[in-house]
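Box 3.1 A note on notation
Throughout this textbook, protein chains are presented in two layers. The first layer is the amino acid sequence; the second is a token string describing backbone geometry. Keep the layers aligned when reading.
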Amino acid sequence: MPLHLHPRSSAPIQGVRLGRGAKLLPRDCYDSTNGTWQECPCSGLQIMSSLCPTIWIRPTKQIEEMSQGAQNLLQYLVREKQYLVPGHWSSWAVSSIPKRLDPRIDLRIKNDAAAQELIGSGLVTEVSPGSNIYWPVMDTSSLGS
């Protein structure tokens, strides 16, 4: 996971920088004006703009608490710029918002539990409310290949 430095004090923190659409969790951290990384006082809220001046980081320990399958799926979605489409019997990774899934070009996710865990983690968010199509909520540079 990448190392981020506080803009005022250069205090380090390791984790994923959250972007527009991310739902804040209690252990997410932000760059407070006193030069330290502070835990989120407003969990449950969503980052609404990519122009938000506050830097929000999801610490590495939260990501490492996920199963290996969920971590691998997250890395795949970010690296390949894929959407996650959960289904009744299986989930899919697709390169564009689908009108209909096509098994010839879309990737069926074999570990549906990992897809559900990832959705519950707050590291992916719905493209639009009720769409049931998810996109990673971080900079694509935040995860290694």
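The chain has three helices and ten strands. Strands lie at 3-5, 12-17, 29-31, 37-39, 56-59, 83-85, 91-94, 107-109, 124-126, 134-136.
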